[in-house]
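Before a computer can learn anything about folding, someone has to put a protein's shape into writing. The three-dimensional part falls to structure tokens, numbers that each stand for a local backbone shape. The protein below has been through that process, and both of its lines are reproduced in full.
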Amino acid sequence: MKNYTLVFAREHKSTFDSIKDGSKRIETRAATTKYRDIKAGDILTMSCQGEKFEKKVKNVFHFKSLEDLFSKFEPNQIKPGVKSTEEMTKIYYSFPHYEEKIAKDGILAFELE
């Protein structure tokens, strides 16, 4: 079992809080080498503005595309309040270089306990 740290920017504090309170149980990241080795049983330390907590990874899913991700998970499972795949796609593509990263490496979904 390994421990990995996922850092959330200030503007994503609501996502951090949703993971903390358990209302968000799926966290996603572009499947870059930084996150590719995370496995079920590993511990993710969530960090935002000096606040930290830990969640255990129940399952890891690697998808080749957002379409594949959305065939398994509804957008509101990934980000509570988001109702459509179009809205979720816009959110992903608003992150720096995410469109290219997902096209190249795919996307990981971490199911949290």
